[in-house]
Prior knowledge:
Elements: E1 33-37, H1 38-41, E2 47-54, E3 65-66, E4 71-77, E5 80-84, E6 87-91, E7 96-99, E8 108-110, E9 117-124, E10 130-132, E11 139-143, E12 146-150
Amino acid sequence: MPAPRAPAFDPFDVPESNASAVPPPHDAPNRKRWYRRLGEHAGITRFGVNLVRIAPGGQSSFRHWHTEQDEFVWVLEGEVVLVTDAGEQVLKPGTCAGFPHATGDGHQFINRTAEDALILVVGDRTPGDAVGYPDDNLAASFVDGRFVFTRKDGSPL
């Protein structure tokens, strides 16, 4: 089969990164997840589309919620544990989850299996977004196209 031509592309041709906007050493819990920024690769600027691989023992992010941004997640491969205020539930391939903004109900995905998990994460890039972290002394604000992290009281990390 021939390689796709633009605007089509193979998502696995997009470079994978596990960089984090959370500064070291606070980023350590997120080092077992890698993402491919598919939306940016396609030139999309108004919302993000990320293919996220979570290694065994890893997490997608700290448990969080957005004041302005909606998020949608689709489990493609493997198994993840979705953690919300309601507790934990196991999600398998084909399962989706949606997170409307401003609910205050934090979410995260954890891989407790021995195999990688693959999820597709879609979120908008609404100006003025802020992020709450119910389990951690973190806060984030969306400034100039990126998240800036502080402690909950506003002091630097």
